[in-house]
Automatic annotation (TrEMBL):
This is HDIG domain-containing protein. Residues 21-108 form the HD domain. Pfam families: HD. It comes from the Bacteria. SUPFAM superfamilies: HD-domain/PDEase-like (SSF109604). PANTHER family: METAL DEPENDENT PHOSPHOHYDROLASE, METAL-DEPENDENT PHOSPHOHYDROLASE. InterPro entries: HD/PDEase_dom, HD_domain, HDIG_dom. It comes from Schlesneria paludicola.
Amino acid sequence: MSHAADLALVREYVQNENLVRHMLAVEAAVRAYARQSGADEDLWGSAGLLHDFDYERWPTAPDHPLQGSRILRGRGYPEEVIYAILSHADYLQDQFPRKSLLDKTLYACDELCGFITACALVRPERLQGLKASSVKKKLKQASFAAAVNRDDIARGVAELGVDLDAHIDFCIAAMLPIAAELGLEPAS
């Protein structure tokens, strides 16, 4: 599937623009990891972009992401994409443990991209100049972006086998080229 087809599917199911932006951010980070590892960038990009497309309609576990997986199967998406999306839900780990590099990358980028977005939104420069040290400071503040699960971020880094600082900086760099789409351009 193409990015345009994936985005059309997202737009069919999602009204909340912040959720769309989150999925675009995760897509950017996952695609960047695909490039780095020599993997199929379009395949990985699909997993990143579509990982939460069913969340608005079916926000409760296990409906999300099980409902979405049925839709994706019906539309002919590759099982590798569907499995990665299923494995990003911790409550489905007994059935869909994270095994592949794609599975682990999607999981490691999901919560972190959301947290990076929250960090950027409180800065006049937004993503520009945001560094891992600033993000890590905010991670220690339990009241900041309280809905973001810090344990998921730590688990994702451990499963992917990357350094937290490097992972944060990598995700920021991946998001920067689409800062306008993410609503994260510097405030004027």
